């Protein structure tokens, strides 16, 4: 019996980055849904039910109703509260703050992976696979 495709929700305000990430995951056998804002991600998650969230840390807030500070970190917080089985991989384009972001992500349960952008597709897929393997261990 063939195993079902893992579902990956990709969120990044940079459309080129988000679309490239989606292509990388699709070509590696994942089913993807791509959004470009926290608002779009929160609206689509209930229908898509991702196994893995891949998001940028800095996602500008374009929706006044959500209030200030709605970024990748607030998305991670919302997802860990509403979908605890969803694994999360955060991407940052600020290598200098990588340690601080990892410390921030350590506060969330389940574990959140952190990678610096740009990263080679092999590193991205290896980390994603490791995150998804964690979900099988903890279920």
From TrEMBL:
One biological process term in Gene Ontology: phosphorelay signal transduction system
Keyword Phosphoprotein: yes
Sequence ranges assigned to domain Response regulatory in this UniProt record: 7-132
Keyword Thylakoid attached: no
Keywords: Phosphoprotein
InterPro entries cross-referenced by the UniProt entry: Bact_response_regulator (IPR050595), CheY-like_superfamily (IPR011006), Sig_transdc_resp-reg_receiver (IPR001789)
Pfam families, alphabetized: Response_reg
Name the record gives this protein: Response regulator receiver domain-containing protein
């Amino acid at each position: 019996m063939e195993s079902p495709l893992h579902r990956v929700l990709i969120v990044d305000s940079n459309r080129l980055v988000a679309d490239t990430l989606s292509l990388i995951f699709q070509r590696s056998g994942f089913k993807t849904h791509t959004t470009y804002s926290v608002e779009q991600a929160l609206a689509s998650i209930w229908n898509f039910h991702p196994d893995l969230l891949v998001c940028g840390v800095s996602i500008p807030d374009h929706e006044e109703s959500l209030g200030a500070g709605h970024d990748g970190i607030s998305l991670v917080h919302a997802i860990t509260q509403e979908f605890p089985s969803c694994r999360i991989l955060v991407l940052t384009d600020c290598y200098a703050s990588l340690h601080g972001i990892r410390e921030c992500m350590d506060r969330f349960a389940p574990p959140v992976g952190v990678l610096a952008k740009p990263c080679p597709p092999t590193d991205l897929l290896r980390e994603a696979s490791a995150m998804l393997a964690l979900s099988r261990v903890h279920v």
